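Quick one before lunch.
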Amino acid sequence: MSRLNTAALTKAMPQLLSLMLILFLNYLAFPGFFEIRLQDGRLFGSLIDVLNRGAPVIILAIGMTAVIASRGVDLSVGAVMAISGALAATMTVSGYPVPIVILAALGAGLLCGLWNGILVAYFDLQPIVATLILMVAGRGIAQLITEGSIVTFNEPGLIFFGTGSFAGIPMPILIAALLLTLAIAVVRRTALGLLIESIGINRSASSYAGLNSKLLLLVIYAFCGVCAALAGIIIAADIRGADANNAGLWLELDAILAVVVGGTSLFGGRFSILMSALGAVIIQAMNTGILLSGFPPEYNLILKALVIIVILLAQSFSSLGGWAFLKGEFRSKGANRQ
Amino acid sequence: MNTRVLPLYATLLICIIAYAACVFQFPAMFSTRVAGNLLTDNAFLGIAAVGMTFVILSGGIDLSVGSVIAFTGVLLAVLITRYGVHPLIAFAIALLITTVFGAGMGAIIHYLEVPAFIVTLAGMFLARGLCFVMTTDSIPIDHEFYAMLQGLFYRLPGGGRLTFIGLLMMVVFIIGIVMAHFSKFGSYVYAVGGNRTSAELMGVPVARTTIGIYAMSGFLSGLAGIVFSLYTSAGYSLAAVGVELDTIAAVVIGGTLLTGGVGYVAGTFIGVIIQGIIQTYIVFDGTLSSWWTKIVVGVLLFSFIALQRILVFLSLKRTTATSGG
Amino acid sequence: MTDKPGLLTVEGICKSFIGFKALDGVDFTVRSGEIHALLGENGAGKSTLIKVLTGVHQPDSGVIKIDGQAVNVRDTQHAQNLGIGTVYQEVNLLPNMSVADNLFIGRQPMRFGFVNRKLMEERARELLAQYDLHLDVASDLSRYSVAVQQLVAIARAVDMSGRVLVLDEPTASLDRHETEILFAILRQLRARGLGIVFITHFLDQVYEICDRVTILRNGKLAGCALTAELPKIELVSLMLGRTLAIATHNTRRDRPVPAIRQFSFKGLGRSRSIAPFDLDIGEGEVIGMAGLLGSGRTETAKILFGIETADTGHVHIDGNPALIRTPQAAVACGFGLCPEDRKSDGIIGDLSVRENISLALQAQRGWFNRLSGREQTVLADKFVKALDIRTTDIEKPVKFLSGGNQQKVILARWLATNPRFLILDEPTRGIDVGAHAEIIALINRLCDDGMALLVISSEIEEIVAYSTRVVVLRDRAHRGELSGDEITASNILGMIAAEPEGASA
Amino acid sequence: ADLTVGFSQIGSESGWRAAETSVSKIEAKKRGIDLKIADAQQKQENQIKAIRGFIAQGVDAIFIAPVVATGWDTVLAEAKEAKIPVILLDRTIETTNDDLYLTAVTSDTVHEGKVAGEWLAKAVAGKDCKVVELQGTVGSSPAINRKKGFEEGIASASNIKITRSQTGDFTRSKGKEVMEGFLKAESGGKNICALYAHNDDMAVGAIQAIKEAGLKPGKDILVVSVDAVPDIFTAMSEGEANATVELTPNMAGPAFDALKAFKDSGKAPPKWIQTESKLYTQADDPKKVYEEKKGLGY
Ligand SMILES: Nc1ncnc2c1ncn2[C@@H]1O[C@H](COP(=O)(O)OP(=O)(O)OP(=O)(O)O)[C@@H](O)[C@H]1O
Ligand SMILES: Nc1ncnc2c1ncn2[C@@H]1O[C@H](COP(=O)(O)OP(=O)(O)OP(=O)(O)O)[C@@H](O)[C@H]1O
Ligand SMILES: [Mg+2]
Ligand SMILES: [Mg+2]
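Model of the magnesium ion complex:
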């Protein structure tokens, strides 16, 4: 068991090192980075911000991991977020109770996911195209719901999902953590993990082995849609309003980036949901660091590009056997010294 | 008939039907003006899409296209207006930089085995970020050479214009088609997209090809940037946001598979024109709100793809039936 | 043994994959004008040696000499430039490109700086005509069966080899006719002074055409001799490190044909792929299916297993009607299928041996009824032992196994589901003599246990050895059935050849 | 309708923009004008296509809300050739030839920033004040100009300093996120005396962040922003925001009037019709303004 853990740890090495490096740079940019205090019964600090702001992307990344592992991609998550947020806000304003609102918003995400899934699994459209359709039209649907304006609401029950806290922990973090544990448990305790990897690596062979790959794909995309809807609810609740124009804009790229930084290949196959979440945290830590650094915003994108390149270099260095090489070097040097 | 070209014919057929349907609703759409506009307005998109076709044929993707277009525009504006460089020299500098930029991405993709999606995403951030660093203002370019190029057009009967940039796009497409089907490089691109390992085992120079593909995409993005700057006579750091998705959509509507190895450059041209028709239709309609515009674009996109699949399916069935007897 | 100079020589080649020594100090020489067989069990290191020779892998140590000059083969392109043409074990071609492109990529005829397609296609037609293949060279390679693809790969390699031709199991999916053609060409090349390396598991072919043999065992050199001086028994024991009684004569046919046929397929057919056919099969029966390439055997299997849906006909199992339109439905009825194309339809390359073996059983048990890691390990261990799958451990990604061992993994996957009706499409393709005998024994054992088997094979002797009945196909239709004493090689051949020109049209 | 006008709108990236579109429709209806709106989804190339499309359709006039100041000369020259008058809304363009358009109905975005800055200078009245700034989208002209104007407005007050400035992309959620960062970086917000946001949406997001940090927006941290969308008036009425500078969504109304006058009498309007940049503070009965603005489609 412990050998397995160390193996997993070495595999996660580039990501963990990247995270540590970014956190350290953040600390240099802002010495109070690691301070955490209690504010109105809620944890408060930059580190908490990283997790809190990262929560929607973590949630997206969980769904996206499954999609990417099945050798697909879902470009529509940002638009689905906007739809679910818009629906939640307008329904709340029209006076529906919170549980119904949440269910409806999640249901909308499910429908979107099913639509994508049907196009991919049953109509055999390429995932990127299939989801591009909803990416374009979905935001339009969200705007149609809000009629282009920001729908503001004041329902404490819904707002709680964005800014509330439980035992001092902000709700978004809690929800993300919960979903993460749940998703990992489902993947580990059922055969889904293996089967998803299997269709991602070789769909034809999986079908020959008697696997219902179409249904599985449908479920994967539906799940991704629900995750996106959840993230959409959180974002809307956070700003107490649904901004159909901007909610989740370009977040699909962040989610994909998180998954890839987490080490899942865009060509499908082996995946780790936990590592994707770690990837999302790395990205958010970088974003927060840029905000804290005080650099003029003109440099944001360049900083982001450089960080991504550094992480990728570290990753490919290790996947090309760089660490083993270094370790070998190190060991033989150590041996020389003795 | 070779089944590989079916999507191409299907797309062409759809394009013609779509245009006919538009003309039926708005007779004014049947004019040389609209036809000329389709070429001029989509020139930069088309040029970038040729590069994207090669990238996608090789099984990759290039997300940096839009940013590189903006970068080129800003660079040209800065060079020409601030440093007084002659546009032709500025063009050469810009093309050199974007080509090297593309080649660099290709090298990272090949040698470090990082997915193209991520490398070009970083490239997208980098190019856009460099725009901001050069200037956040939009800079107008006022130069007689620009005016001369913009004044170059052939007036079609009926008031339409066949502009220089529209023609340039056509030329790029023709070169692209010839390269894809009648050059060794083209066959290598298809080979790498078909199966990289096999290509390697068959002795295809995969490294050179990959770097070449992204260099070419960089070059064409740069050229698209030049065209865009001619189109708007300005450099603006927020220009061409999301153009990469438009080009990808054009390539895919044109029947190229994102998995690589299958598709035609000519199909991309039709893809670009179809997108142009959608845009023109929406303008002619003029009643669509922002959100209905998005929804309609999505629905049309879906119908095109669905129709394409149905047509391919039907004709496959027909050829099956005849040769099966 | 030094009468002729070594054209291609390797000395002391070592190659390790993460903690596993695939080649250990191997010496090997091919001379000009000889056909040299490279033999060994599955996983012995034959393909690895080829890959080292042709620049796919870099050796850890050892030298490669061409014409006595030490060279460092950088990559496959370099190898080609050195005049080495190669067909690798898994057909490595580009299914998305035309047949002509596949034959000439990288060396297309040019005119005015452009590829001269017309000339290229003409040359492609000429080239393939030598192999009695008359294809539409402008259409996609993916349209053609594995066997055709293999011939194309061979034609390409032969055309490119200036000095050395390397063929890694080229005949695995070829039938007699194609093999004859290939051999004729090899003889011509030998006469022209080429050195030819030939890997195969068909020992008869070794004796038919090879001048010398080199034998590998567990990555080490086990012996090298002139074919004529090495009796078959000795050769086999060199390969396996033990002696093996090769049983070819039949035991099955003596069994009474079962009275009850549990699986009954009536009038199943699909336009363009296979004419409607009837098939009944009962527990304990082995039906052999023989036919030429493209005669529709694989299509039959696909329809039986629900991969392709039949346009006509119906299925009865135990007398009850059944609807089989998907593999899941077939699996639910207790069917299993080992596909012909193991690379694209069989293995899940990145998954481990353990996971590959558990996959079908897992799919059968459903998504939520997970086989635990321990159960999977037990299962995998059991079959690794039972089928003698050579792997360092069961966690190894299956793509790193040798070809024959991959085949066994897929067989294990289906045996794990304990099927009632198992279809094997070319099960012995690429499997060594030892394993071959084991698989035939296994087939016999399985039907003793009451399993119904349908075996598709291009090896007539093999079919004769284990079948209770034989179905013969020609031109995508079931043409006849043999049973009991009618099952002889010559009878089968006679039925196949009734209309010999039809198949390659 | 006696007049057909093609309007190339940028998109609907914000509530304000949606309001401008809906107000334009209302104003057109009032005057019996047939208004064709083409939505450019934030892209200049789409706007150019739309203008070309309008020319091909032969509309009577073209309105443009240009997404960026440069790059219009060629297409406007085509419109001129087709004798279609062009009116610019809410932003003017940079061109070598002013004849290419009839008039521009815009606010002065630099002026807006200046009004905000001057208000702040007056409000702190000589006390030391560290300001954090939430910029609009990097590179967009309102962001550049509102920054510039604000700096002009506080230029004479040496006690006011901008200590941090980051982009919030004109959105609520980014405004909130960036403000959270500012608060942390400036020791929990104790060092911040005022917030200047380039639009109200970012200010609304930032106000929430301030509250969550345990501070009182409007008191501990003064909040001043631009646009005057309804939600900021709610905040003002609760004392959580201090001032906003109005950018009226009614640009089309004056434009229609100018066009009518031009068509009827051939009288060319002035080249620039500037809309008012009105300052609203808590003293202006924000509740009432909110009710007025609510129905305009923000
Ligand atoms: N890339 C690799 N990584 C790890 N192990 C490998 C790799 N390639 C081959 N091997 C191992 O090396 C050994 C030799 O394999 P090789 O393919 O050379 O066998 P072979 O003699 O060709 O067998 P077959 O007759 O089944 O084709 C096998 O045990 C295989 O598992
Ligand atoms: N010699 C050939 N010439 C042309 N086409 C061929 C040839 N051999 C096979 N094909 C094509 O390959 C397809 C595959 O047929 P199928 O797989 O059913 O054959 P099979 O009997 O299983 O033969 P095998 O599996 O040995 O190739 C056929 O539909 C046929 O079109
Ligand atoms: Mg082998
Ligand atoms: Mg077959």
